[in-house]
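Internal tracking record. Fields below are filled automatically when a chain is submitted to the structure queue. Please do not edit lines marked as system-generated. If the sequence contains nonstandard residues, flag them in the REMARKS field before resubmitting.
Queue: standard
Priority: normal
Entity type: single polypeptide chain
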Amino acid sequence: MIYKNKIIVLLLFLNLFMPVYALESGKYKPVIMIDLDGVLDNYSKYNENEIPKIKKGAKEFLAKLHSEGKYDLILFTTRSPKLATEWLMQNNINQYFKDVTNVKYPAHIYLDDRAVQFNGDYDKTLNDIENFKVYWK
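SYSTEM-GENERATED OUTPUT FOLLOWS
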């Protein structure tokens, strides 16, 4: 029993640095973590029980990213993983994602509508933060 628990703890620890699915395939691909609200849906106001309709062009975008086979896509959301997974299935895009999570895994790219990219210049970054507005407002 103790041996089995140590293996579970080790797998959970490794999952913080490299998701288990990456170990299963034997071939690691760069990960793109894609935010749900405002990126894939027509977000304008939070409702914990309902996710807005899918954005025009989102299906085609995901299909293209997936078809090239270069990346593993992970949906990142603060919403309930169950609700988000149901939304993916209702919109027939669940097949493009390896995982749905609220944990930011190490990734090649984070695609998010509420992000500021740090480019090495603190003054510019401070200005970007102070003047930040999401595109949909």
